[in-house]
Specification:
Chain lengths: ~120, ~280
C-alpha cells in the first residue's frame, strides 16, 4: 500500500520552491550611512533600520507570503533583529559594537547566516 | 512675445511665498505614529506649559532626562489596540530609567515603539550631543542675555538654554543651579533648580547671576536701579572721610548708600536636581 504513495510524496516535495538565498532591501532612512545587502550588514550602535527580506527560489516555484521566514541574531547584545507587523519586514538594531551573524530561517530550516558588524556610535 | 508672456505667467506660481512651516512634533520614521516629547518639569525651553512640545527637539543634551510618549497618528486604524511601549535601541547610549530615558553618550539612538507581541511598529532616532555652552535669555526669546537691568522690586523670569556646538538648543531635563552673588541686590524667588528662574530686584546696585549645569557655567551682569519715584535712596548723601593717619592727607569719598559693599559671602545657591 505504501509503495504506490512514495512516488506521489516525492513528486509533491519537488513541487515546492528551492531556497536560493534572500533578496534584502533597506526600507527606512537612517540618519547615518549603513550597509545593508544580501550578504552582510553594517550599522552603528544606536541605529535601527527596517529591511525587507524576500526568499529566492532556484526553481519555477516562488515563495509565497505565507511561507515561513524568520531572522535571528546570534548575539542580541550586539545586534537585535525584531519582527514588524509585516512578515517580510524586520528591524535591525545596532545595540553595541561587535560582530555577529543573522540566521535566516525559511520554512523552519536554517538556510544561511549573514555576517553583521555593529560599529561605534556615530557622533 | 506672447510666448515670453506665457512663460512668465507660468513661472509666477513658483515664486509665490505661501510656504507654510509645519513643525515636526516627532513623527515616527515608519509613519505609524508620533513620538511626543513631554516636559514633566517646568522650565524646559521646548515645552513651557507642561504639554508636549509642538516641535520635537533637533538634539538632546548628554546627561539629560528625556520623557517621550507615543500616540497613533490615526486612532481609527488602531481602535482598541493598546499603545506600544517605548524601548531604547542601545542602552549604552540611551538608558530606560523609570518613566523616561537618560541620554548617556553622544550619538544617534533609536527609540522603538514595540507592541505587546514584540513587533516594532515605529521608530525614531534621537541625536544626543554634548553641551557646548549655556545661555540665559528672556522667556520666549532665544537671544543671549549678557546683562540684566531691573528696578528695585521688579521681577522677571529668565530661561536657561543648553546649546551644542552648532548653537542648537538641546532638549532634555538637566540639573540647573542658579546663584546670585548678592541676594540683597538680586533675589531668586523661584526656580533656583529649574530651567526657568524668577528673580527680583532688591537694593540698588550691581551683582551677577550665574547659571550652572554640570561643569559649565555662565554669568550675567545684573544692575538693579532704584525705583524712579524713590527719593529716599540718597546717592547724593555723600560722606567725606578724611584720613589723617600717616603723612599727608588723603580724602576718601564714598556714597552713603553702599553700606554693604564688599559683602560677597552671602551667596544663595540653588539646589541641583536632575542627573548632571
Amino acid at each position: 500500500m505504501t509503495r504506490p504513495l512514495l512516488p506521489l510524496a516525492l513528486l509533491l516535495a519537488a513541487c515546492g520552491p528551492r531556497y536560493d538565498g534572500v533578496d534584502i532591501d533597506l526600507h527606512s532612512e537612517p540618519p547615518v550611512p549603513v550597509r545593508v545587502s544580501d550578504n552582510d550588514f553594517e550599522l552603528p550602535a544606536g541605529i535601527a533600520v527596517v529591511i525587507e527580506v524576500k526568499p529566492l527560489s532556484s526553481n519555477q516555484f516562488d515563495y509565497y507570503e505565507s511561507d515561513q521566514l524568520d531572522l535571528r541574531s546570534d548575539n542580541r547584545q550586539v545586534l537585535r533583529v525584531e519582527p514588524t507587523g509585516d512578515s517580510r519586514r524586520f528591524v535591525l538594531i545596532g545595540v553595541a559594537p561587535g560582530q555577529t551573524c543573522v540566521q535566516v530561517e525559511v520554512d523552519y530550516r536554517d538556510r544561511a547566516c549573514i555576517p553583521a558588524v555593529v560599529t561605534a556610535p556615530e557622533p | 512675445m506672447r510666448l515670453r508672456f506665457l512663460l512668465l505667467l507660468a513661472a509666477l506660481p513658483a515664486c509665490s511665498d505661501d510656504y507654510e512651516y509645519k513643525p515636526d512634533p516627532g513623527y515616527g520614521e515608519l509613519g505609524v505614529g508620533v513620538f511626543l516629547y513631554e516636559c514633566p518639569t517646568s522650565g524646559d525651553p521646548y515645552c513651557t506649559n507642561g504639554s508636549p512640545a509642538a516641535e520635537f527637539p533637533q538634539a538632546f543634551a548628554r546627561g539629560g532626562r528625556i520623557h517621550l510618549r507615543y500616540d497613533w497618528k490615526d486612532d481609527s486604524e488602531h481602535f482598541g489596540e493598546p499603545l506600544p511601549q517605548l524601548q531604547s535601541a542601545s542602552p549604552t547610549l540611551l538608558a530606560r530609567e523609570g518613566d523616561g530615558f537618560t541620554a548617556l553618550a553622544g550619538g544617534y539612538a533609536a527609540v522603538l515603539a514595540v507592541t505587546g507581541n514584540s513587533e516594532v511598529v515605529d521608530l525614531r532616532h534621537i541625536h544626543i550631543r554634548e553641551i557646548d555652552a549655556l545661555r540665559v535669555s528672556n522667556t520666549g526669546d532665544a537671544l543671549a542675555l549678557s546683562e540684566l537691568h531691573l528696578e528695585a522690586g521688579a521681577e522677571t523670569i529668565l530661561q536657561a538654554r543648553a546649546l551644542d556646538a552648532d548653537d542648537v538648543t538641546l532638549g532634555g531635563v538637566l540639573g540647573h543651579a542658579w546663584t546670585t552673588a548678592d541676594p540683597e541686590v538680586l533675589a531668586i524667588t523661584a526656580g533656583a533648580d529649574s530651567g526657568q528662574v524668577r528673580v527680583q530686584g532688591g537694593l540698588a546696585g550691581d551683582t551677577t547671576l550665574t547659571l550652572t549645569i554640570g561643569e559649565l557655567a555662565v554669568a550675567i551682569a545684573v544692575t538693579v536701579d532704584p525705583p524712579e519715584d524713590d527719593t529716599t535712596t540718597g546717592t547724593a548723601d555723600t560722606d567725606t572721610d578724611t584720613d589723617t593717619t600717616g603723612t599727608g592727607t588723603t580724602t576718601d569719598s564714598s556714597t552713603g548708600t553702599t553700606t554693604e559693599t564688599g559683602t560677597t559671602t552671602d551667596t544663595t545657591t540653588g539646589t541641583t536636581g536632575g542627573v548632571l
